[in-house]
Known about the structure:
Largest sheet of chain B: 2 strands, antiparallel
Largest interface: A-B, 34 and 35 residues
Helix content of chain B: over 70%
CATH topology of the largest domain in chain B: MetI-like fold
CATH architecture of the largest domain in chain A: 3-Layer(aba) Sandwich
Number of strands of chain A: 16
Number of domains of chain A: 3
Radius of gyration of chain A: 25 Å
CATH class of the largest domain in chain A: Alpha Beta
Number of helices of chain A: 17
Strand order of the largest sheet of chain B: 1-2
Shape of chain B: globular
Distance between the termini of chain A: 75 Å
Oligomer: heterodimer
Distance between the termini of chain B: 17 Å
Number of helices of chain B: 21
Strand content of chain B: under 5%
Amino acid sequence: MNDEVLLRLENITQEYGTGARRFIAVENVNLTLDEGEYVALLGPSGCGKSTLLRIIAGLQPPSRGRVLYRGQPLRGVNPHASIVFQTFALFPWLNVLENVELALQVKGVEPGERLDRAVDLLDRVGLDGFETAYPRELSGGMRQKVGFARAMAVEPELLCLDEPFSALDVLSAEALRGELLELWSEGKIPTKAILMVSHNIEEAVFMADRIVVMDKEPGRIVAELEVGLPHPRQRKSPEFQKMMDQVYATLAGETRPESEEMGVAPGEVGVTRRLPEVSLDDLTGLLEHLAESDLPQHDIYLLEDELGVDTDRLLRLTETAELLGFAVIGNGDMELTPLGQTFAEASILARKEIFAARARRLPMMRWLLKMLHAAGDQRLKWDVVESALNLEFPPEVAQSQLENLINWGRYGELLAYDVQTEEISIDKETAPAYAGAVR
Amino acid sequence: MTQDTHIFHTSQRAGRLLTWGDLAALALIAAALYLGARLAFDAPEVVAGPQISLAPAALPWYTAMSVGRMSAAYALSLLFTLFYGRLAAYNRRLELVLMPLLDVLQSVPILSFLPLVLLSLSAILPQKLAVELASVVLIFTSQVWNMTFAWYQSLTTIPKELREAGSIFRLNTWMRFKRLELPFGMISLVWNSMMSWAGGWFFLMAAEIFTVGERDFRLPGLGAYLHAAADKSDYTAVAWGLAALVLTVVVIDQLLWRPLIAWSERFKVEMVETDQPPTSWFYDLVIRSNLARLAGERIISPLAEAFDRLTLRRFPFSGEAEGKEESWSWPGVIAAGLVSAGALYALYRLGLMLVAVPLVQWGGIGVGLLATLLRVALALLIALAWTVPVGVAIGTNRRLAAVLQPVVQVTASVPATALFPVVLLVVIDMPAGLNLAAVLLMLMGTQWYLLFNIIAGASAIPQDLKYTTELMQLSGWMRWRTLILPAIFPYLVTGAITATGGAWNASIVAEYQSFGGRTLSVTGIGSLIAQATALGDYPLLLAATLAMVLAVILINRLLWRRLYLLAEDKYRME
């Protein structure tokens, strides 16, 4: 393998919005990609890894910084790159062959040669016999094979994969990963480098030579790890497991002191911590699972298999448990706090009380409850609260954060919400003392 | 029944009563109306109409004329749609004006523009050409908005990753249009075209029979034939005319729209197979024929390939990822400035003209609006009274649907305006003849929208809920109150919005008629507009038209939009 630099990102920053309502999607990213490398961009959802991929492909220009391709600044869509999309992005009205042919036609390949090359590509990904099928007739795995064939049709130097396996079922994804590795490692495709966006740690460790770990708020690179294991990699091998543990340790972080962990309320100086988007039933499931085990500490990477959840969801759950003080995290391990232990063993009603007590301490919840008490009839319109949050978060985030906040409030019986009037109010049944105190 | 759900889609967006965009749109419309009225000052006092032959042998010619007008208007609508929708979808600044304009134009009674269009065109063009053009313009304005809206909507809802695939594989503008945008919008474009075409008949017939006082604006065509036949009480000719009309509508449906719909099914985006895709015997016949296959392989494919290659070579992909146009361009700024200045001046002159309208006439306009509103409400109530039970019966009973659906569809395909002279012939000598006829015309123009929507709503009630109400032993009124009415409510509102729009339109031809040598009229805004046209009282014509447009928009915003939002919010099943 030669080590010529294919792509270099210099101080890439991507922002949205203007003025006070400016949000940073990706901050100050520096990255190089050498020829012959398979690099995975790994991180939780919202860390800007897909944005970064689009900047690299030239689909969107960065707000600041430079993209150098073979030393030249990139302008417009990168003609040497191709993308395999998460949702396949096949044209549903074209059959398999026509989808691949379209990419060739635009490159100016004559009809006869076009057909031969498209058929050959489909052969290579194992789709012979399905040339005249329409995408809707195919399984997800086969659709993605068409996606690969189409991307390879333009013979890209840089193949960008945008979570290409995440919309597939487990078995198809596994098969396709193996086939891609075979095509790549045996040099059957003219591709010089592969950049894969993923939120699945196991997948990244299984496939990539180097893992670039990103974190969110703002999206940035927090670590780069060389994998350095020979292919084919054995998932159960100690080296593989150690690597997984290491990546999880980077991604799950360390539990910090409560004041730091919780951030500040909206409107105050500092960062308002976003509430992770989880189902609270999932959280209960995780805590119960941890409580049942004999060991005090759990490797987080093992939980993925034990609970059958993907990396992204697992990380959001561990984050929630950490935020609510039910668990502490360090070195890729997770340990229940006494409170977490109590919660896991408590009755439904007691759980709600514990949850409410903790949720009330969250700065955003405290802020909302305070506003509600200050409001005349202890009610606030959804829109009012959302526009207040809009000063803190990008619009779509503000909406989902408020939904989250209300969900948590409802679960803890702190808040009530009337969908007809779109009004948020204090849950009167559990908080009469509060209401009286303010009047 | 899945077909019906495609059809009656009215776009009602949330928000304040009138936005700045709405006001700008209204100002533009008012300015255009002023221009029309100003031109109309020079319209000839007397307009001689065509001689209409009642011989059945003349019918093929009249049919060809009518279909020709429809086709011309449709072609114009399609071109306009592709252009305007694209402009609005890809240029953020233009979008701010173009979309409210579309929204307002979609909800104004288009037929109220007919007199102004006719008069202004006759002032500047030779008579025959002016009348032809006016009919085409009228049909165009009735057809184009929903098509444009559908096209705009599909352009803006193309999934991001499909667009990105288009960019990364470097499709140029033409290839993107051919392979991505047009296929993606095809289904809704075809459905909306079919709806627009069906609606167009109503306006064509109205244009063909429009005659006020000394001004006979009739056009040789099926509508004029029916009008003349009824005028002379020639029942045989009426029968011939109706037969020709129904035959024309059915043939076009079978040979054009059904095949198009069956064909457009291939552009479906959903990644699942449909249980019962729409079919067409004619389409099957065509795709199985060797001639069509040969033509496709030998002529169409090579030509398309050559054209693609030409565009790819001459206009290759720019390299820029597509996105919304943000920046101002100088020609754009200058054009916008000119249009605004022109509109402002026109508004100023409009104001001067309106100030000159005496108070008495304003009073008349108010009374007229109220009277027409009452008729519209009455027609809607009558329509509701029969369509709700019948629609629910058809929608919940498959066997009944199989028998009645085709009958209803054919009956509904006859444009109400074509039947109007016939209705007049029957009821004109009854007490309150024209009043009755006016309400009847409104009813005929509106009930079908309601009926189809209610059928669609009733057939969409989930089987589980039906079982549940049976298990709970709800019956009679309780069943209606807890299940059926809430379930059909969104459909009912959508149907009613379209229906009242149609009723307001109908008032223009229904409240004032020259018939059998007599001129009949009842109090109403429609008859006021017609009288002003006859007398050449242009300020009054302008004032009445504007008042009607404003009134209808306000009613839409105050009543229908709220009901629609309520329906969307609370009663949507999905």
